[in-house]
Amino acid sequence: MTYDNAITALADPTRRAVFEALAVKPQSVADLAQGQPVSRPAVSQHLKVLVGARLVKATPQGTRRIYALDPTGLIALRAYLDRFWDDTLGAYAAEVRRQSAN
Amino acid sequence: MLDSIVKTIDVPCSQKRAFEIFVDMASWWPLDKRSMSLMQAGAPAKSLSVDAREGRRIVELAADDVEHHWGTFRVFDPHAHLQLDFHMGLPADQTGQVDVSFTPIDAGTTRVELVHSNWEGYGDMAEMMLNGYGGSWDMLFGEHFAAACAG
């Protein structure tokens, strides 16, 4: 399931660091490896997992591939927060109605 | 880069009252549904402490007496506008912003708009949800994803 992969993929701190670096700007594997305390093959491996979880997508640019965030995998987090605010604002509106009735 | 979450509701009271009730969060926040305590201590939080002033905090007291710092008021402009750094138990540097505006529609109706932005910075929340919710994960997301998969 997509959401399960997304959550699991982000549970790893190094992978999350790669993900966050791509949130700042799209980059190639070489660019990413420069900014991370891990080897280039390790970065490639993390990217593979992130792409599999649909958190990151690759776009060919000449001979390189540029990696960027893919919002698809963030749907789970968004759905969670969407419901979070539905629940809380629902409770707020109920309290306003309760106080207005008094 | 990602779209903010935007929620708009109309409440049947004046702008002043809508604002006052909102910042009195302890009176309405559903701790039995949404609290750190629920995820980490397995029971609703004991209380929510809201110091409703600029620069001051919202702190939850969990069932196991652990305090969770939820957020900090960054803009406090009665009775029109609030802005919070909102991280709900995550480290304060991993914060999203919650912006709430109160607009009078007429004497007895106020439109409340809540915008939650920068939430994609919540990398750790994904981990927290995984650890905290465990078996109830399907219940939380099942409906949404069942619909998405059916489409």
What report would you give on this structure?
The complex is a heterodimer of chains A (102) and B (151). Chain A has five helices and two strands, in the order ααααββα. By secondary structure, chain A is mostly helical. Chain A has one domain (2-73): Winged helix-like DNA-binding domain superfamily/Winged helix DNA-binding domain (Arc Repressor Mutant, subunit A). In chain A, strands 1-2 form a two-stranded antiparallel sheet. In chain A, a hairpin with a 2-residue loop joins strand 1 and strand 2. In chain A, helix 3 crosses helix 4. The longest helix of chain A has 27 residues, at 75-101. The termini of chain A are far apart. Chain B has 151 residues and is an alpha+beta fold. Chain B has one domain (5-150): START domain (Alpha-D-Glucose-1,6-Bisphosphate, Chain A, domain 4). Chain B is 26% helix and 35% strand. In chain B, strands 1-7-6-5-4-3-2 form a seven-stranded antiparallel β-sheet, with helices on one face. Chain B is globular, with a radius of gyration of 17 Å. The two termini of chain B are 25 Å apart. Residues 130-151 of chain B have low confidence and may be disordered. Classes of the chains: A mainly alpha (102), B alpha+beta (151). Chains A and B meet through helix 1, helix 2 and helix 5 of A and strand 1, helix 1, strand 7, helix 3 and helix 4 of B.
Question: What is the fold's blueprint, element by element?
Answer:
The complex is a heterodimer of chains A (102) and B (151).
Chain A: H1 2-10, H2 13-24, H3 29-35, H4 40-52, E1 56-61, E2 64-69, H5 75-101
Antiparallel strand pairs in A: 1-2
Helix pairs in contact in A: 2-4, 3-4
Chain B: E1 5-11, H1 15-23, H2 36-40, E2 47-50, E3 57-61, E4 67-77, E5 81-86, E6 96-106, E7 109-117, H3 123-133, H4 137-150
Antiparallel strand pairs in B: 1-7, 2-3, 3-4, 4-5, 5-6, 6-7
